[in-house]
Amino acid sequence: MVARRHFVPHVPGTRFLDASTAGEFATDAELALAANWDRTASSVKHMTFIALKTTEA
Questions:
Q1: Burial tier of 19 (Cβ tally within 10 Å: 0-12, 13-18, 19+)
Q2: How many C-beta atoms lie closer than 10 Å to residue 30's C-beta?
Q3: Is residue 46 over pLDDT 80?
Q4: What is the pLDDT of residue 26?
Q5: 11: left (phi over 0), alpha (psi -120 to 50) or beta
Q6: What are 7-38's pLDDT values in tens digits?
Q7: For the chain, how big is the Rg over CA atoms in Å?
Q8: Contact 27, 6 (CB under 8 A)
Q9: Which of 3, 12, 30, 35 sits most deeply, having the most CB atoms within 10 A of its CB?
Q10: How far lies 33's CA from each of 1, 23, 27, 45, 55, in Å?
């Protein structure tokens, strides 16, 4: 038996809409679409997020 799971960190205060995935797991393209995410926090101020800026292309 093989069990494969993909864990993707997301911003607290958001949730991913499972109904928008074509397969069992979301693809990178589906995760990148803003339409597939829903904000659950009452305000943007309640969402904790740190932006990472790198020099890699």
A1: exposed
A2: 16
A3: no
A4: 83
A5: beta
A6: 666 778 888 888 878 888 888 888 888 888 88
A7: 14
A8: no
A9: 30
A10: 33, 16, 10, 22, 23
